[in-house]
């Protein structure tokens, strides 16, 4: 016969569970408001559409297109020894370790405790001899404790995935730091090359002016000139000498900058010789722009991983509203005032086992405020991702516009040099023959100097804009970097509705945008922040809605340094040992070179 009291207790427990859950603090209507932007929904602009779209993405060793072995060696030295890059890599390792710490919460925790304490009893009148007088006893305990958190609501799983997503973001940040370092080395090297060209111009101009001053003195001695002409001819000499000194200073500073970027002392830059940069041919854009941009730019990849991490943070905040259940068990032996090994006897053993439950009922709105913080963090991350996409397209368009403008400027600057050089030769010859005064020579020489400097600066700008365009395209990657799946960029609660709303917004924006080039029209992302279908082959694309196992959360790779010929790149490595390892290897692609250096043209013009 069943006990009615026991049945009543069981029934009460059954009804109490939903009442307890109903009594939990409520999240209310707190939810994120922002969503990611589909790059294909943005109008790329006329400059990008009109550019050559048959080019490939930048090669891993893109700086080798400048055809300067000395530059190649300094980029390699910077990648190997730059402290700032080492800091970024240390942050990656720290984030990976933190992800491992969070993943450990998914496993049972077993701890052992042991205490051994001896006590000698006195034998005197005050304490009384007693049965333990003048004896030593032991108070020993030993226990084995097990605890396991039942992750019913996915709090620990989402916390582990959030930490892993942040580790992926830090890896992308490290790749961005590497790209910035590469570009800074190339820019400093180009600036060094420009200062050498300007030094040649200043030295040539000083030599010309010294010849004119000599001619003025001869005319004065021959009774054909005046002292005023001599003074006018000698007046610019100190200024030209000052320019030479200033350019020597700039060259020394550029050498120091290159040495510092390589993590070396200023003395290492003393061995740098004159750069020999040469680029020819126009630069183009990849045909998959802008769809594949989210997989090639490390800052965009980092922003997407940050959005995914913030989404998991919202899931963690939601889980805090529900009961927290732990399974606890312990087994051990305890003995007091006995022999040393008495605590190991069976009759002194004990065990405990059972669940422990905690439930938030009244918290003064703390949990709802925490959810609000997480939601606002998600909105911030999503809008930062949107801004990164907008800025990326702007940077690419800016460089395309600059390249087109500088191509025209280079032709005009060279024509100006030719005309100014011819004008100076005529003015100087006329002055030598006494057909014109020195003022015309001074004006012609000033025009020639400015024209030659303009050619040198335009050429340096053309070399620099190529490096800036490479940076805008995300540098050299063999294949797009993996990012989170579309489903992982939304919180679990309302994920389908959020994704549907984001797609609807992207479709509406895309319908108002200008049509993309035909070559890129076939590339679609299918989502707001999914790089899979746009940036990777279909066989490797993320499946929307696929959830990562907690032990392999985000099996997408993390980036770490590996040694490559002439450079240091990143390989991909998962943060957990159980994740499958994959390595991003470099691929060498022929880079499209720009126009050849025009310093020889300047020298030839001076020789005329």
Automatic annotation (TrEMBL):
<feature type="compositionally biased region" description="Polar residues">
    <location>
        <begin position="561"/>
        <end position="588"/>
    </location>
</feature>
<keyword id="KW-0812">Transmembrane</keyword>
<feature type="compositionally biased region" description="Low complexity">
    <location>
        <begin position="491"/>
        <end position="535"/>
    </location>
</feature>
<dbReference type="GO" id="GO:0005886">
    <property type="term" value="C:plasma membrane"/>
</dbReference>
<comment type="similarity">
    <text>Belongs to the outer membrane factor (OMF) (TC 1.B.17) family.</text>
</comment>
<dbReference type="InterPro" id="IPR010131">
    <property type="entry name" value="MdtP/NodT-like"/>
</dbReference>
<keyword id="KW-1134">Transmembrane beta strand</keyword>
<protein>
    <recommendedName>
        <fullName>Outer membrane protein OprM</fullName>
    </recommendedName>
</protein>
<dbReference type="Pfam" id="PF02321">
    <property type="entry name" value="OEP"/>
</dbReference>
<keyword id="KW-0449">Lipoprotein</keyword>
<keyword id="KW-0472">Membrane</keyword>
<dbReference type="InterPro" id="IPR003423">
    <property type="entry name" value="OMP_efflux"/>
</dbReference>
<keyword id="KW-0564">Palmitate</keyword>
<feature type="signal peptide">
    <location>
        <begin position="1"/>
        <end position="25"/>
    </location>
</feature>
<feature type="region of interest" description="Disordered">
    <location>
        <begin position="476"/>
        <end position="608"/>
    </location>
</feature>
<dbReference type="GO" id="GO:0015562">
    <property type="term" value="F:efflux transmembrane transporter activity"/>
</dbReference>
<feature type="compositionally biased region" description="Low complexity">
    <location>
        <begin position="596"/>
        <end position="608"/>
    </location>
</feature>
<keyword id="KW-0732">Signal</keyword>
